[in-house]
Each structure stands twice: as C-alpha cells, then as structure tokens.
Design brief:
The chain is of the alpha/beta class. 42% of the residues lie in helices and 16% in strands.
C-alpha cells in the first residue's frame, strides 16, 4: 500500500484532493494528513473520511522539524503532496512575515525531512519516491496583452508578498532538484473554485453575500482577468503529475476559463437566480444592485492566463469542467451544505477540533 503525506489537507484544495484520491484508489492507498489548523484549516471538510482505517490526521506545523521528522521516521512515506501554505493575497499585504515563515521556511523543512528519509548512502534516492510541490500562477506576475499566456519557461515575476513567498518556495524545490537530484515536481495552477472553499475567496464570498443580500465588493474596475479551474480537475492533475510527471519538471495546470472578475459576479448572480426555487425569498435580493466597487488592491495583477500545453502533451491531462458547469456544481454544493458555511462564517468550525487537538 502506497503512503501519501499530504500537507495542508484540511484546507480547500487539500481536502478536495484527499476526497478525490479515496474515490479513485479507495483502500489501495494510505493518506497521512498534516495540517496546523490555522483559520483556513477545517476538519469538517473531511468528516466523510475521518474514520477510515487508511486515513490519519496529524495536527502539526510544517515549520516544526521534530514533528515532521517524526512522521517520516515512523512511516514509510512514498509520496509528499505539499499544499500547506498561507494563500490569501490581502492577508499577505497586511502581514508578510507569516507568509515567508510558512511558505518558505515550511517548505524547506518538508524538503529536508523528505531528503533525509529518502536519501541513500551514495547520494541517490530510494526508488519510487516523489515530492509534489503545489504552487500558483501568481509567481509569474501579470499579463497585460490578450492572447499571451504563462508557460513553464515564463520568467518568475511576483508582485505581492504572497506570490513572492510562493516563488521562493518554488525556487527552493528547484534548487533541491538541481543540487541533489531530488525526486520532485512543481505544479503551478490557476485560480481554483469548488466545494469547501473558505469564504474570503471571491466565488464563495459572492455566493454567500448574494444569498444574504449583502454588498458584493469588486476591486477597481472589476476587469482583472483570472483563469478558473474546478478543484476536482486540479486534484486529477496533481495525481497524474505525481505518477506520470518527468522528475524535476514543472507543469502548469490551467482551466481554459479566462474571465473578468465582474463577469464572474454576474454569472454567479444569474446562476443563483436560475437555481433558487420560485418561492425562495432570497431571490428578491440576488440582483446586480448588490455590486459595489471598492478601492483596488495594492499591486493588483491585471491578468493571469495559463497555457497547460505541456501537461496535456506529456501526461494527457486537460480540464474537463467548463465554468458554467463548475459554478452550478459549486452553488449546488453550497445549497446542500449551508450549515458548513454558517459554521465557517461564525467561527464555530474551529471550536470542536480546537478542543480535540490542543
């Protein structure tokens, strides 16, 4: 049985990845989920799997060498899938230090402990080991012209403390690949959306605010462009790169869903109006009147667009979920899990597990 060490598995993408892996492999794999349970970590995301015999949760900070080293010492880890990161740009602008500590120093600890566990006396590495570092398209900076894209060879040009910390972690992984021939891959993905996403992010924020009749904040002129990737498609890409990716390579993972932020908001409003029952009182306030333009974010990148050509050609992955389908699936999930959203927005989600994992 292959053992996966997943960092940040209680977060949005990490928890979706764990669900995806158990659906695909069931009892053929074992997953150890390491998460510090900061505000973005929510073990309610994993209630469906928490009692599986082949799933283990460990509350630990990736910066803690002893805790991470102990996991490697006590388990034969075959795969590291490294999601754990501070990821919200606005928070990085207010508090850059924690982003450097977690995203850079935490990645360094993960690399060192994996290297220590997997390295043989001659400096080579045990067979069939892989470290998959999950990163973002934001490390490439901003695109101004339509028809241009981020490729794996695009120069790194981060513009926020968040993207700078992720770029630094990418470079650390690359340095270990180049220096030690460390068995790793890097993936850089576009904006994800789907179930379990923390409501400070654009799509769940707009869904939640619209249903409550609250203002829908739009930065600047609302014309900043992002490429949107449904989270299950991303989970599939990560699995495929982990198993089929050429060692040492970087792969861009994009959704072929470029849209302006204001387009996203209008699509959400239209979709909510379509999906809400005729007798639902919330229909009355789900309108474009809620849209409110606010001061633009500092250093706000204008456009991101990923070219996933390499991953398609080498591995055979391509996105399967177009945005209109994905947003309906996402809204349907939020309708069916209103208690999850209430627990997150109220902070109640932290109480039970905070007591359990003191």
């Amino acid at each position: 049985m292959r053992t996966y060490l997943v960092t940040g598995g209680a977060g949005f993408i990490g928890s979706n990845y764990i669900h995806y892996m158990f659906k695909k492999y069931d009892n053929e794999i074992r997953i150890i989920n390491v998460d510090a349970l900061t505000y973005a970590g929510n073990l309610e995301n994993l209630k469906e799997v928490e009692n599986r015999d082949n799933y283990t949760f460990v509350k630990a900070d990736i910066r803690d060498k002893e805790a991470i080293g102990k996991i490697f010492a006590e388990n034969n880890i075959d795969r590291v899938v490294h999601f754990a990161a501070e990821s919200h740009v606005d928070r990085s602008i207010r508090n850059p230090e924690v982003f450097v500590e977690t995203n850079v120093l935490g990645t360094l600890v993960m690399l060192n402990e994996a290297k220590k566990a997997w390295e043989l006396e001659d400096g080579s590495f045990k067979a069939d080991k892989k470290f998959l570092h999950v990163s973002t398209d934001e490390v490439y900076g901003s695109l101004e012209e339509e028809g241009t894209y981020f490729y794996e060879t695009t120069p790194i040009d981060p513009h926020s403390p968040y993207s700078a910390s992720k770029a630094s972690s990418d470079m650390l992984v690359k340095a270990y690949i180049d220096t030690y021939k460390f068995p790793a891959n890097i993936t850089n993905c576009s904006n994800n959306y789907g179930p379990y996403q923390f409501p400070e992010k654009l799509i769940p924020l707009i869904i939640n605010n619209a249903l409550q009749g609250k203002k829908l904040p739009v930065y600047g002129d609302g014309k900043n462009v992002r490429d949107w990737l449904y989270v299950d498609d991303h989970a599939k890409a990560i699995d495929m790169v982990t198993e089929k990716g050429r060692l040492g390579e970087r792969y861009n993972v994009g959704g072929h869903n470029e849209k302006q932020n204001i387009e996203i908001i209008n699509i959400i409003i239209e979709t909510l109006q379509e999906m809400l029952p005729e007798n639902d009182p919330r229909r009355a306030h789900v309108t474009t009147d809620l849209i409110t333009y606010v001061e633009d974010r500092k250093g706000h990148d204008r456009r991101y667009a990923i070219a996933p050509d390499k991953i398609k050609e080498e591995i055979g992955w391509e996105p399967e979920t177009m945005f209109k389908e994905g947003i309906r699936l996402t809204i349907k999930w939020f309708f069916e899990n209103e208690d999850w959203m209430k627990n997150v927005t109220s902070g109640d989600y932290q109480k039970y597990y905070t007591e359990m994992y003191k």
